[in-house]
Design brief:
single chain; 541 residues; alpha/beta; Rossmann fold; 3 domains; six-stranded parallel β-sheet; 20 helices; 36% helix; 13% strand
């Protein structure tokens, strides 16, 4: 018999690598399973095939082969009776359900379940307090079902698939809960458009919903597919035509916007390093301050229970200790700062990036931003830090040395960024993620635009804040939403969905995919572009 707590059948991972449990012989009772573990199980809705499909609910569920009084079905229409695969032929009319349904979904919408006490679905029903009618026609005592669930959980050994080490049932439930949240976030996505070809393997893994990954299609075909299937189209916003949002609205097709997460990889996206983290947003996207999005809604409304805040605090401490940033731990030589003078770090960005266009609050690129920093800090010693994609020659936003030094006192592109952040008196950003990373390290941050972390009482905001952000948050509430609840992560080694803690450990220990020929070609292309830009500056004085 398969353990009650088990892993989804991830198609891109060997079952032995993904396995979170295995049967344990000789366990007769569940005395080691306490009520808080079972309560956590109910809250997480894991156990059984929780990744399975979610057809329309049925009022009565019947395991084929379970005797049933015909009177129990009186007055019900055929589609209100859900038949679960079992031994023998169905003794009554009803709607045959797939074998791999999500039992939590189906039972939560049912009035009764007809099955035996040992049936896995009966265990779920007992936890959800949905009546289970046994073969004798009487309701099975929920306490007996709860005890049986305890025995099932105690009857397995558990392992951490990321380390291979033994763990306990409570830890397994927390991991399965993260997997459930990841998979549930992908339900209903039936096609994907605008994904760069070098990201597609990772995107397939990120968007797998427990049964399939969406096919990659053109926008027009993807919209048609989503409309016919009454599902959603996943898009990479910067790589689809500008009228995609309007066209989707006209066809009543929901969009799921996909973007890089905030702890991404050990290399630049512009250098073709595949993402280890993405966000999938069903209402907007985090960098567009002009409209609501899933992250903003989390920040504005989530209850943030104490265990989540404690987890966020531990995660923040680990990130700061490890020196992890969006692209991983850094190396380089620290910049010398003047003693006895106020120092300010101004973070450059990519001029045509959507986060600048939609979250820049009217600031017109890096030069305008830098001039505003000088006006806000007339007596400070200002160091300007170019964006790494711009510095590598891949993106727009390069400023000549003369243009920078008209407003700043120094240019830095080699110091460890977080060491520099912690050394200056204040960090100024337009909408850069560096502002969020500086907040995590307890540094004062002045924001000229309206990034996701502004407007919550944690930053000095020079732009008019959105009325949707009237709530004051703690730093760890911000971290919990932005790094735990909103993104998805893939372990660089196992390719399993993971939590941010695993991603941070992998980035700290140096784990990364091997460099490909495309990565090497992209790096060379960037060097050539940068050489041409600097040569043109030199020739024109």
């Amino acid at each position: 018999m398969a353990p009650f707590l088990r892993s989804p059948p991830f198609p891109h991972v060997a079952p032995s690598a993904a396995a979170i449990s295995a049967p344990l012989d000789g366990v007769e009772d569940g005395h080691g399973i306490w009520d808080d573990v079972l309560d956590a199980l109910v809250a997480a809705r894991v156990g059984g095939s929780f990744w399975g499909r979610q057809p329309a609910p049925a009022r009565v569920l019947v395991r084929i082969g379970t005797p049933i009084d015909p009177g129990a079905l009186a007055g019900l229409m055929e589609d209100q009776i859900g038949l679960l695969p079992g031994k023998g032929q169905a003794p009554m009319p009803g709607r045959m359900l797939p074998a791999d349904c999500d039992p939590w979904w189906m039972i939560a919408g049912a009035q009764t379940l007809h099955a035996s006490e040992q049936d896995e679905w009966a265990l779920v029903a007992g936890l959800l307090d949905v009546p289970v009618i046994g073969p004798e026609g009487r309701r099975i005592d929920p306490a007996r079902l709860r005890a049986e669930t305890g025995r099932r959980i105690a009857g397995a050994r558990y392992r951490d698939p990321f380390t291979g080490r033994q763990t306990d049932a409570a830890t397994a439930i927390r991991l399965l809960a993260d997997w459930r949240r990841h998979l549930d976030g992908n339900r209903g996505i039936v096609a994907a458009s605008g994904m760069a070809f070098w990201k597609r393997e990772a995107i397939r893994e990120f968007l797998w919903d427990g049964a399939h990954s969406p096919p990659f299609q053109s926008v027009s075909r993807g919209l048609r597919c989503a409309r016919l299937a009454r599902g959603a189209l996943a898009i990479w916003p910067s790589r689809v035509p500008p009228d995609t949002v309007q066209e989707a609205a006209a066809q009543q097709v929901p969009l799921a916007r996909v973007e890089d997460g905030f702890i991404r990889s050990r290399g630049l996206g512009a250098a073709l390093h595949p993402p280890g983290s993405v966000v999938v947003d069903r209402t907007g996207i985090y960098y567009n301050a002009r409209a609501a999005n899933d992250l903003e809604t989390l920040l504005a409304t989530h209850a943030f229970p104490a265990p989540l805040i404690e987890r966020a605090a531990r995660l923040r401490a680990r990130i700061c200790l490890a020196g992890v940033t969006k692209y991983g731990p850094e190396a380089g030589r620290m910049l010398a700062l003047p003693a006895g003078r106020r120092t300010v770090l101004a973070i450059g960005q990519v001029d045509d990036d959507l986060s600048v266009r939609l979250g820049g609050a009217g600031v017109d690129g890096n030069l305008d931003f830098l001039a505003r920093v000088r006006r806000a800090e007339p007596d400070a010693w200002i160091v300007y830090r170019p964006h790494p994609d711009v510095q590598a020659g891949h993106r727009k936003g390069h400023l000549s040395e003369a243009a920078v030094l008209a407003h700043a006192d120094a240019i830095d592109s080699g110091a460890p960024l977080m060491e520099l952040v912690q050394a200056v008196d204040e960090v100024h950003v337009l909408s850069s993620l560096t502002g969020f990373e500086a907040l995590m390290r307890g540094r004062p941050v002045t924001v000229h635009g309206m990034p996701f972390y502004a407007g919550w009482g944690l930053t000095r905001d020079l732009a008019q804040p959105s009325a949707r952000r009237g709530r004051r948050l703690t730093l760890d509430q911000l971290v919990a939403a932005a790094l735990i609840l909103y993104p998805r992560y893939l372990d660089l080694q196992t390719r399993l969905p993971c939590g941010p803690e695993v991603m941070v450990e992998r980035m700290t220990d140096g784990s990364k995919p091997p460099a490909t020929s495309l990565m090497r070609l992209r790096a060379l292309q960037g060097k050539i572009r940068r050489f041409m830009t600097l040569s043109a500056e030199y020739l024109h004085g």
